[in-house]
User: Fold this.
Amino acid sequence: MTYTANQETELRNGAPWNWDKAQAFASKHGLSARSVVAKVKSLDLEYQRLEPVKKNGANNGPTKRQILDFIRESLSLPKREGDLTRSECLKIWEHLA
Assistant:
């Protein structure tokens, strides 16, 4: 989407940006808020992301990384990042069988 020079100037003068400001700008100029956020980022202007909100404020349990770290530690597998390898899966299989 092409932005006019006046719109780009308005974006530069409106920094820092957040979702609410992007929505207001989008509504005013007949654009989508996502387009505005993309343009703000392409102009290297400051954009303050919304923080993720947990549903019902509940603890969703351990993360995938925490689970993998626990499995590796429990089975004396080498510490590393990333998903389980085939050989690690086989070791789990042997332990469970």
The first strand starts at residue 17 and ends at 18. The chain has two domains: 5-48, 62-96. The mean pLDDT is 89. The helical segments are 5-13, 19-29, 33-42, 64-74, 86-96.
